[in-house]
Design a protein that fits this description.
The chain has 351 residues and is an alpha+beta fold. The protein has 14 helices and ten strands. The strands form two sheets. It has a six-stranded mixed sheet with strand order 8-1-9-3-6-10. Strands 2-7-4-5 form a four-stranded antiparallel sheet, with no helix packed on it. Helix 5 packs antiparallel against helix 6, helix 11 crosses helix 14 and helix 12 packs across helix 13. The longest helix is centred in the middle third of the chain and has 23 residues.
Length: 351
């Protein structure tokens, strides 16, 4: 497993609004591309169960994608997380677990199958596999009935869009761990979640959802802050003195008819340096990144709104419906109209 998983000391640290016209995508607070992406991929929280465990116990989870239809049917991707409230345990992919202590947060951004257990690599095949998780808070008791349950966890999921373009998920490691000593919001989150879930107040489910979203955002912020210099990937690019400003400008004005020369001039860089640095860190050229980001904004509007395809294309910077449709199909394999029908069908089936 990567360094982010093995080193406990490394602290790891929302959808663009419905399109109302070109101007809506200009002059926004997109100086923070991370916030812009979190909005555009529709981060959606779901809190599922409260675990009390004692003695030998384990939960070998199924991949989160298998739970999507029942838990968050509108989500394309599920992120798993566990917060240890009391005691100690082990968590991570089978064979790659690390020891966790009270207050620690472990997140699986890609929703991989993983093992949570009382001791390293202990698997009780008769135990829970997480497949019984529901949309609402429930209690799960693990271990022999005659042993005190002194290990307590809050476990849940976050949903988000993965298509047509989510640079964030691809940039995250398989496992993120936040030490409990990190302080701030993360140190208060577990107790707040448990308290909120037990009160039964009106709006409790929405409150838990928002709290889970804030937890994940704080995890991301700590992760970005602790990345080593020259770290590759989209998140590392946010801190680069050439690529970071370029990303900010593209997110500020995605509908602008950018050329490479104009972008380089705005960030006081040469075109050669911009392309080389951008491609090295992000994995694509600035103009291809812009195309994919525009299509992500368009895909959200297609799924949620009823505007005509030509109007949506114009709203994200395309001068003709034909050009928009070609670009959309090239990146997604579907025409804009087919994409809309598929998403609306998914929504209807889920409900």
């Amino acid at each position: 497993m990567g360094e982010q998983v093995r080193e406990r000391g490394r602290a790891l640290t929302g959808s663009a609004s419905t399109v109302a016209g070109k101007q809506q995508y200009s002059n926004t607070a997109a100086m923070d591309p991370l916030s812009d992406v979190l909005r555009a991929v529709r981060l959606n929280g779901a809190h599922f169960y409260h675990v009390e465990a004692g003695g030998p116990w384990s939960v070998l989870t199924v991949p989160a994608k298998e739970l999507v239809p029942r838990i968050l049917p509108h989500a394309e991707h599920l992120i798993s997380y566990h917060i240890l409230l009391n005691g100690t345990c082990w968590g991570g992919p089978l064979g790659e677990q690390i020891e966790l202590h009270a207050g620690d947060v472990i997140v699986f951004p890609h929703g991989d199958s993983h093992l949570m257990s009382s001791t390293r690599d202990y698997v009780d095949r008769s135990g829970s596999n997480g497949s019984e998780a529901s949309r609402f808070l429930s209690n799960v008791y693990l271990g022999p009935n005659d042993i005190a349950r002194n290990t307590e966890l809050v476990c849940g999921f976050l949903g988000c869009d993965s298509r047509p373009f989510n640079p964030l998920i691809a940039a995250l490691p398989r496992v993120i761990v936040i030490p409990g000593a990190a302080g701030g919001f993360l140190s208060q989150f577990p107790q707040q979640v448990v308290a909120e879930s037990r009160t039964g107040r009106v709006g409790s489910e929405t409150m838990l959802t928002r709290m889970a979203e804030l937890m994940f955002i704080e995890v991301l912020r700590r992760y970005v802050e602790m990345l080593p210099p020259q770290e590759a990937g989209w998140l590392g690019a946010l801190r680069d003195n050439v690529v970071g400003p370029a990303l900010s400008r593209l997110h500020e004005e995605p509908t602008r008819s950018w050329t490479l020369a104009e972008l380089a001039k705005e960030i006081a860089s040469s075109r050669t340096v911009l392309v080389e640095r951008f491609s090295s860190l992000v994995g694509v050229t600035p103009m291809l990144y812009l195309t994919r980001w525009r299509l992500q904004l368009a895909a959200e509007q297609l799924a949620r709104g009823s505007s005509k395809v030509a109007a949506i294309g114009a709203q994200v910077g395309y001068e003709s419906e034909a050009a928009f449709s070609r670009a959309f199909k090239r990146e997604t394999g579907l025409s804009p109209a087919a994409w809309r029908r598929a998403r609306q069908t998914e929504f209807a089936v889920a409900n």
